[in-house]
Design a protein that fits this description.
Largest sheet: none
Distance between the termini: 28 Å
Order of helices and strands: HH
Shape: elongated
Number of helices: 2
Number of strands: 0
Helix content: over 70%
Number of domains: 1
Length: 66
């Protein structure tokens, strides 16, 4: 769970790194091998993106005191 802006930025960097790994893997693996190895990485990317969205929308869920 992301709790700070710094953690969110780190999560974004992790996503970028995972995407770079996938792009490179597509170049050297067969479709079948790529599909098998990419699945858990894609799930990790999806989870981290969801964490970022939850963090960015968390202030919207809590009423702002005025």
């Amino acid at each position: 769970m992301i709790q700070t802006d710094d953690q969110m930025l780190i999560a974004q960097q992790c996503i970028a790194n995972l995407r770079r790994i996938l792009l490179e893997a597509r170049k050297v693996h067969s479709r079948k091998d790529y599909a098998r190895m990419a699945e858990p990485i894609l799930l990790e990317v999806q989870q981290r993106e969801q964490d970022i969205l939850e963090y960015l929308s968390s202030d919207l869920e809590e009423p702002v005191a005025s």
